[in-house]
Amino acid sequence: MTDTPQAELISGFRPQMLKFARLQLQDDAAAEDVVQEAMESALRGVDRFGGRSALKTWLFTIVRHKVIDALRERGRSVQVSTLERDEADMDEAFEALFRDNGHWSPASRPRAWGDPEEALEQRQFWQVFETCLELLPARTARVFMMREFLGLETDEICTTLQLSISNCNVILHRARAGLRQCLNTGWFAGEGAPC
Amino acid sequence: MLNCRQATRLMSEGMDRPLGLVERLRLRFHLAFCRGCRAFKRQTAFLRRASRAFVRLSDDDTP
Predict the structure, then answer these.
(1) Between helices A52-74 and A5-12, what is the axis angle to 10°?
(2) Which chain B residues are within 8 Å of A183, Cβ to Cβ?
(3) Is B45 part of the contact surface with chain A (CB cutoff 8 Å)?
(4) Cβ-Cβ contacts under 8 Å for A18 (sequence gap 6 or more)
(5) Residue B50 CB contacts under 8 Å (≥ 6 apart), including other chains
(6) Distance between CA atoms of B10 and A169, rounded to whole angstroms?
(7) What is the mean pLDDT of residues A107-127?
(8) Angle at CA B17, nearest 5°, toward B14 and B22?
(9) Per-residue confidence band for A23, with pLDDT thresholds at 50, 70 and 90
């Protein structure tokens, strides 16, 4: 577990992850299990991470996902709902961008983002980016990160998380549409002139 | 004819699997006439580049 600096980094986050899981689950043994599982699945692909920030986002997404799964198994729907924005809410927000005929409503039609590459050079942009990722429902974020952070193929993701291919596609679309909207509002709005 | 909602779904799937010929043609036709969806396509492609950049970012680059 300590062969690479990244694996060491993972271990470094363990206390924080445990604290989070204990707080949510109110059960030390269950929290240990969740964190152990999360660390094991995070080890995969860890070498791709250049530094703490993205790795931490990825790790806590897995922990959050596993905590929510554990709460669901116990039937604690109230705690689940305070922990995560519902996937249905995201779909509703996406639907609201369209008119009844399925075309963009004029106010929400995507407009050009000016020079987005420039944003990649700016620290504040990455803070917005992280926040937008954290706002995604845990499962949605996890599927998105497996695809776009680790570069896994969708069939591999589906198998790992036991989802159907079409379910995976729906989740990835939801994640992309949601992130696009969040970055649009949080960073690009007002910056890029309409094309 | 695809509407914009369907087009966004197809654009997303196109990032995860090769689209079939008919799907590609329908999408290309839609994009030719829809500025909003062209922006959506560029922006989701940007999301992919940003995600990869985020993962590679070293601590020196972040606060």
Answers:
(1) 50
(2) 43, 47
(3) no
(4) A31, A32, A35
(5) A116, A119, A120, A129
(6) 10
(7) 92
(8) 60
(9) very high
Taking CB atoms and an 8 Å limit, are B4 and A173 in contact across chains? no
Nearest neighbour of B4 by CB, restricted to A54, A103, A179? A103
Averaged over A16-44, what is the pLDDT?
92
- Total length of chain B: 63
Distance CA A103, CA A118 (A): 30
Is residue A84 over pLDDT 90?
A: no
Q: Say which amino acid occupies A66.
A: K
* Alpha-carbon torsion (B3, B16, A92, A160), positive or negative: positive
Select the more confidently predicted residue: A190 or A123: A123
Residues in chain B closer than 8 A to A54 (CB atoms): 54-55, 57
- Round to whole Å and give the CA distance between B1 and A122: 40
Which is it for the CA torsion A157, B50, B56, A140, positive or negative? negative
Structure tokens at B20: 């079939």
pLDDT score recorded for residue A72: 86
The two three-digit tokens of residue B6, written as one number: 């369907």
Closest alpha carbon to A188 in A109, A145, A128: A128
Strand partners, A98: A104
Tokens describing residue A15:
């206390």
Alpha-carbon gap, residue A130 to A124, rounded angstroms: 10
What size, in residues, is chain A? 195
Q: Indicate the pLDDT class of residue A192, thresholds 50, 70 and 90.
A: very low
A176 token code pair? 């992309």
CB-based contact A14:A35 (threshold 8 Å):
yes
